[in-house]
Amino acid sequence: MRLFRHGPAGHERPGILDAHGGLRDLSGRLADLGPEQLSPAGLARLAAIEPGTLPLIPGNPRLGVPVSGTRKFIAVGLNFADHAAEANLPIPSEPVLFTKAVSCLQGPNDPVMLPKDSKKTDWEVELGVVIGSTARYVEESAALKHVAGYVVVNDLSEREFQLERSGGQWDKGKGCDTFAPLGPWLVTPDEVPDPQSLDLWLEVDGHRYQSANARDMIFSIPHLIAYISQFMSLQSGDLVATGTPPGVGLGQTPPIYLRPDQILCAGITGLGFQRQRTIAWNS
User: Fold this and answer.
1) H or E element: which one contains 85?
2) pLDDT per residue over 15-25, tens digit each?
3) What's the pLDDT tens digit per position in 151-167?
4) How many CB atoms lie within 10 A of CB 241?
5) How far apart are CA 234 and CA 128, in angstroms?
6) Adjacent-strand bridge partners of 16
7) Which of 38, 162, 178, 252 has the fewest beta carbons closer than 10 A?
8) Half-sphere exposure (CA, 13 Å, Cβ side) for 227?
9) Which helix (H) or strand (E) holds 159?
10) 279, 156 in Cβ contact below 8 A?
11) Inter-residue contact 221 to 192 (CB < 8 Å)
């Protein structure tokens, strides 16, 4: 299934794609796409619905964050060796974890706002994993049983805030408003038989900077879920961003950072693509 949420920000309704790519409204059958609906039982009920029996959504609706009720947003740093190299950082011996504020989540095509005093806002396409059932001290072999679906994430980062401000952790450059466009679709595991085989890409103003495959991750998706679950429980609706491949602005020679009125496009095989325009703070 390819699930989404549509409508004005703060008033989104659930939807599902039909076999022909038509947008169908689910709001007559369920209230939202949150932890209850993304649980194994909730997804089973959704799978029993024939999309063709649902009303078509007219026009070109705004798409929102495809999951509601996310309580934890855990991200993984330096999970591609070439990205670690371009950042002049060592390849990690175990996953590097940080958090992104859930307030940075936004729809896949909403504008990206460059923060106040930003000088080094950067892009990072990533494969996102949405949790469907509680994962606590899980074994790697069972980790994927806890997945509700997969999404495209742009883990935007302000590098000066992240790396050059004294004290603190990476979080300062990671959780700015609009810094996590998500979607367009939440794609359930039945349509992603091997998440470790997906191609990721990102372009800025039509130039492709990032192009890689999830097989090149240092730590696999099952390993990441199992690892994170040793330190905190992952619950239905929670989000894990699994790391970006090389090609970020920081890694260019010389480095390139985002300016107002640029166009970002990012996509992952089978998960769709997203498109944002950058805008200045408070514009």
Assistant:
1) helix 81-86
2) 999 999 999 99
3) 999 999 999 999 888 67
4) 27
5) 14
6) 3, 24
7) 252
8) 16
9) helix 159-159
10) no
11) no
